[in-house]
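sorry for the late reply, my laptop died twice this morning and i had to redo everyting from scratch. anyway the thing you sent over, i finally got around to it. pasting the sequence first so we're on the same page, its 159 residues, then the predicted structure underneath. double check i copied it right bc i was rushing
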Amino acid sequence: MNSGPEGCAVHDETQTLYLGEEEYGIWMMPADGNRADEMVLLEANSEGHLTADVEGMDVYQGNSGELYLVVSSQGDNSYAVYDLNDNNAYKGSFRIADTEDGSIDGVQETDGLAVTSVRLNALFPQGMLVVQDGYNDLPTENQNFKLVSWQAIVEALGL
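ok and here's the structure:
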């Protein structure tokens, strides 16, 4: 690696490790230290879906077999989604914007994230994405976390 590693995620069933190299892109390899030489590039930043730094990532495993890798693209404050059931196909990117009423600001400079497919309540029927927010403008406060319904992501990207 020519730049530093950042986020990583493991899909337990396939024993696949996904690793973000902040200045280069996303790598994948068997989650077995004895097989590190089998690391392959999933996507380079130069392909246009990620802007350095590649940071947090996690795997969403839905109840109907859906399997997505969610990756924060810190350089453009977006999140890329890859379909792990479809040869790691890029499905789209999204940003977390200010709420319409201005009560909650959007997200910038995400370092880490986590995702679950567990139904938590009526607001999160298909689970949720939690992201670290680097700074807050509404009001000006320390960094915090933002919660996003997975259903909203499905609708936004047509998953």
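The chain has one domain: 5-157.
thats about all i looked at so far, will dig more tmrw
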